[in-house]
Design brief:
Radius of gyration: 30 Å
Number of strands: 28
Mean pLDDT: 79
Strand content: 5-15%
Low-confidence stretches: 1-45, 51-119, 121-133, 249-261, 338-362, 645-654, 778-803, 974-1001
CATH class of the largest domain: Alpha Beta
CATH architecture of the largest domain: Alpha-Beta Barrel
Helix content: 25-40%
CATH topology of the largest domain: Anaerobic Ribonucleotide-triphosphate Reductase Large Chain
Largest sheet: 9 strands, mixed
Shape: globular
Distance between the termini: 45 Å
Structural class: alpha/beta
């Protein structure tokens, strides 16, 4: 409703300030600051105080005295409005004007099935009735500023009604909506906007998520309903607005051809939407947005949903999923679709490359739409997600969809160094994460023939790259640029590089924006084990070491040693100690094992692989002409836990099983999607397009493995969990190979298939040393756990195991005959952001804690393990005492006496699981991972001896990635909660969580 101030009584300018003077600073029942103001971020508190002070300055002192003394009626009369005696329907009387356009809009929205609470005045007059059973106590009159700029008197009861409407599907036994509404009202300040009320309400609800997870669900619903209220009602309307880029006012006309694609969404998608918009709109399921977590939606809101400007988001989550699906399957693409333009040669890719006929968009539009709808349906239900760059850019005017780029130095020269720097800058601008091999750059002190001087070595050069990574962010400010520098430990500058991320030391000897990894040959590990000497060499003097591996590397390296061509020699353990020291202080360098990475690669026929990517899961061949690229997606494993009688035999009523058949189907769909991404992608540089078209690698990963184990009632390191871990990755690898083989039968193999291990029938598990005719495992179907007996879903029942297996020999023969479309297929990545979007734990990792605060670019969020809360609630033991002790114990349940032992075992955190078990599980699934995996290892209090034992165990287990980040705990517990002992009493007050999980980098590039 619009307020119409009476100009004869008071100038309109004073009306806004007038209301400011009526506000008392929010306080709790005892006059102290309300709980809300103690917990959420300080910037809101500061903003409210600032608005309050500014408002007081805008009202004359005599008027402040009159208003404060006169009470509610004085304010109403001064504003030219008579007080209403019917406060339940409106706090504004005298027949105020109603915006009929808004009423019609929301009536139409209700008819279309939208949430009837999504109106701009934050109320639902059509559904008040008995839902507002508990009225809020009256407070001082304040105004709320609506989206159209008009003011409306604030009604506290509307807050409560809105919460009640949104929480109809939640467990109200554990929610105090009246108390929550009161806390929200305590945070209201003068002239607050309706969008600010949404933010206030959601943050207040989220701050209570440690009480019960449904508070976080309610917070998500508040945010999402606000998003729905402020965005177009249909997908097609949103895409047209984003294509025009004009806010939908049509000033530039409806003909996108006249705009030249000047908006955000591509002309291809806009044209498709204009022709078939009704059909596409009918597929959108907006109600699925309400299933998102608060943290997941806030992550989408911050970086993923398209907007016209900083303050105007146009997309809903469901619109984003559909845009991505259409961008993959319905985009028209051309052979020269890269920022670098066409190749200078007629056929740069090779005889087996995709023909121009195949590259052109000749596929049937109906078939493309069917594939897009299938992709949309699975993504919108949370079964999988494409990588962050794909979510950012699919369907837009700049569809750079690739995640990972692996770069080699063009040359050991000024031209080569700066040409490579430009490559990295252009890739970073397009939201790509970079792995850079610097093995060929000469060491410090080496003679330079051209200038008759000596080289300054790697450090000054890396500082230039460090500055570039900081300056050129990814995707226009979505996150800082990120470069990982790879070096072999024989390089004479290795000690200097190990110090570059350390916090102490000379600034000119530091480059802290970069990340560092060592590409470690087996010879070095043997020398450390034997306590032998290690020779440090300059690549300019000892050439060819980076281009060979295995026995060939050993012969060349030892030959240089015997000739005395090294710069200096040190004990191998001295260098090893420096590596461990850097890891303890900084969490890096990454350790990847060069010989395992090469010997177990399906690209070993191309040459020696010399580096990995930013997140250590991509292992591909590069050279000075080719920039390796990979496109990623991840599967949400918890979605395949089914709690009813399933495909693979009978189970007890209500028991859960893992749906391998469904996983196999989804993995095949993802493989075909990612293969299509290779063709529709706009490459930032020509070398990347050339490499990707020749070798066509993809990377399928996972998220929510820990969630799947919990839903099945399997402790993370149990025998059954280890078997399922291996079984899952066998299913994914088999499905990906099968799909790639099927595509090859119609479109041909990738160009460099001949000579690859797969062309000879050697699959990944064969390269790990298994006999050719041996199937890796007879698939064991798990049906343990998950019985709903009325008390707890974790009642254990005898396990039924039904043996089944994949016909690997049949698939192997088909691959030999028909080939593969893709050289590489499986690469479990970190999923730092996308796992949060899906509301599950990261990748294949155990839970780091059962309760903590997570800091990412979107802000700080309290995370509670919802599985634990539900199980404790079912047992009737979830209360404030348990919550406080959980917080005081750093998220561990081990010392909480009332929790049963089986739950203590089930909810062990990663700090309570042996790293030997984590490494064993990495090795087990590694037999079905043809690239590598982003393997973090955890040690609360690391020592050199414990780290050495851990690293050597990983190396001897055959891992390609020995470690991504080393996660440690600081001197005080990693979860530092200011919970006093007295707070374990039921009567005591609030808890302030101070823990921030270690999070060296929120990798959006590899997050899939």
């Amino acid at each position: 409703m619009k307020v119409q101030p009476h100009s004869a009584i008071m100038p309109p300018l004073l009306v806004k300030s007038l209301v400011v003077a009526t506000l008392s600073w929010p306080s709790g029942a005892n006059g102290s600051m309300s709980p809300y103001h103690r917990r959420p971020t300080d910037h809101l508190r500061h903003h409210r105080r600032q608005r309050w002070q500014e408002g007081r300055r805008g009202v004359p002192s005599f008027l402040r005295r009159v208003i404060v003394g006169g009470g509610e009626d004085t304010v109403a009369v001064a504003a030219g409005i008579r007080s209403s005696t019917n406060a339940s329907s409106s706090m504004i009387s005298d027949e105020p004007r109603i915006d009929n356009e808004h009423v019609a809009h929301y009536q139409a929205a209700d008819a279309n099935g939208h949430d009837d609470t999504n109106n701009d005045d934050y109320s639902d007059s059509a559904k008040m009735g008995d839902e507002a059973s508990t009225a809020m106590p009256p407070t001082t009159i304040q105004y709320v500023i609506k989206k159209d700029g008009t003011a409306e008197l604030f009604d506290e009861d509307k807050i409560l009604r809105r919460l009640q409407n949104l929480s109809s599907d939640l467990d109200l036994r554990f929610l105090s909506l009246t108390d929550l509404a009161r806390s929200i009202c305590d945070g209201i300040y003068p002239n607050i906007t309706t969008s600010e009320i949404d933010t206030l309400a959601s943050e207040t609800a989220a701050s209570r998520s440690t009480t019960h997870p449904d508070y976080a669900r309610l917070a998500a619903m508040i945010c999402i309903s606000a998003n729905h209220r402020s965005t177009p009602n249909t997908f097609s309307e949103a895409m047209i607005i984003l294509n025009r880029g004009d806010g939908g006012d049509g000033e530039n006309g409806d003909d996108v051809a006249t705009r030249g694609g000047g908006g955000f969404v591509s002309d291809d998608i806009a044209d498709l939407v204009r022709r078939r918009g009704r059909e596409i709109d009918e597929r959108i399921r907006s109600e699925r947005d309400m299933e998102m977590s608060y943290f997941g939606f806030k992550t989408l809101e911050r970086s993923y949903l398209l907007r016209l400007n900083e303050n105007t988001i146009v997309e809903r989550p469901q619109y984003m999923w559909m845009r991505v699906a259409l961008g993959i399957h319905c985009r028209k693409y051309r052979r020269d679709d890269s920022e670098g333009g066409r190749d200078d040669v007629e056929n740069p890719i090779g005889d087996n490359s995709v023909s121009s006929k195949q590259i052109s968009h000749e596929e049937d539009e109906d078939a493309n739409l069917r594939a897009a709808f299938e992709t949309y349906d699975l993504m919108s239900r949370g079964y999988f997600t494409h990588a962050s760059p794909t979510l950012f850019h699919a369907g837009t005017t700049h569809p750079q969809l690739c995640s990972c780029f692996l770069v080699q130095m063009s040359d050991d020269s000024i031209n080569g160094i700066y040409d490579t720097l430009k490559r990295c800058a252009v890739i970073s601008k397009s939201a790509g994460g970079i792995g850079l091999c610097v093995n060929k750059i000469r060491a410090r002190g080496t003679f330079i023939k051209g200038t008759r001087g000596v080289s300054n070595g790697l450090v000054p050069m890396l500082r230039v790259y460090d500055s570039t990574s900081h300056y050129v962010d990814q995707g226009g400010g979505k996150r800082p640029g990120a470069f990982a520098i790879y070096l072999e430990p024989w390089h004479a500058d290795v000690f200097d590089v190990l110090n570059l991320r350390k916090n102490h030391g000379k600034e000119e000897q530091r480059a802290r924006n970069l990340f560092y990894g060592l590409w470690v040959p087996d010879l070095f590990m043997r020398r450390v084990e034997e306590d032998g000497m290690w020779s440090l060499m300059c690549p300019h003097v000892c050439q060819g070491l980076a281009e060979c591996h295995g026995e060939e590397f050993d012969r060349l390296y030892e030959g240089y040693e015997s000739e005395g061509r090294y710069v200096r020699q040190v004990r191998a353990r001295t260098l090893w100690a420096a590596i461990l020291d850097a890891q303890i202080e900084t969490g890096t360098p990454y350790l990847l094992y060069k010989d395992a990475a090469n010997e177990k690669s399906n690209q070993k026929n191309l040459g020696t692989i010399q580096c990995s990517n930013l997140c250590t899961e991509i292992i591909q061949y590069t050279d000075k002409e080719e920039v390796a690229v990979c496109n990623l997606a991840s599967i949400c494993l918890s979605k395949f836990v089914v709690s009813e009688k399933g495909r693979y035999g009978s189970t007890a009523p209500g028991m859960a099983y893992f749906d391998h058949e469904g996983l196999h189907k989804v993995a095949k769909i993802i493989t075909k999607n990612l293969d299509k991404v290779i063709d529709v992608n706009q490459y930032p540089i020509e070398g990347a397009r050339k490499s990707n078209m020749r070798h066509r690698p993809i990377g399928i990963g996972v998220s929510g493995l820990a969630d799947a184990f919990l839903r099945l009632g399997l402790p993370f390191a149990s025998r059954e969990a280890k078997e399922l871990n291996e079984a899952i990755f066998e299913t994914i690898y088999h499905a990906a190979l099968e799909a790639s083989n099927e595509i090859a039968q119609t479109k041909g193999s990738y160009a460099t298939f001949d000579g690859s291990p797969a062309s000879e029938g050697k699959l990944q598990f064969n390269l790990w040393g298994m006999n050719d005719g041996e199937t890796p495992s007879r698939r064991r179907q798990h049906s343990k756990g998950g019985c709903l007996d009325g008390n707890t879903k974790l009642q254990q029942y005898p396990k039924e195991v039904e043996e089944f297996g994949y016909d690997w020999d049949k698939l192997r023969q088909s691959i030999i005959t028909s080939g593969l479309r893709n050289s590489l297929l499986v690469a479990p990545m970190p999923t730092a952001s996308t796992s949060q979007i899906l509301g599950v734990n990261e990748c294949f990792e155990p839970f780091a804690s059962n309760l903590y605060v997570r800091r990412v670019k979107a802000g700080e969020f309290i995370i509670v393990n919802p599985h634990l809360i539900q199980d404790l609630t079912d047992l009737g033991i979830w209360n404030k005492n348990v919550r406080n002790q959980l917080m005081r114990d750093g998220g561990s349940v081990a010392k909480i006496d009332c929790i049963p032992d089986r739950l203590k075992d089930l909810y062990k955190t990663v700090w309570e699981i042996k790293m030997k078990d984590i490494i064993d599980m990495a090795s087990d699934r590694g037999r079905f991972i043809d690239q590598s995996q982003s393997l973090n290892l955890f040690m609360a209090v690391p020592t050199a001896s414990k780290l050495t034992a851990m690293h050597f165990y990983a190396w001897k287990k055959g891992l390609k990635t020995g470690i991504y980040y080393l996660r440690t705990r600081p001197a005080v517990n990693a979860i530092q909660y200011t919970v006093s002992k007295s707070m374990t009493d039921e009567s005591n007050g609030d808890i302030q969580a101070q823990n921030i999980l270690p999070n060296d980098i929120e990798c959006l590039s590899c997050s899939a």
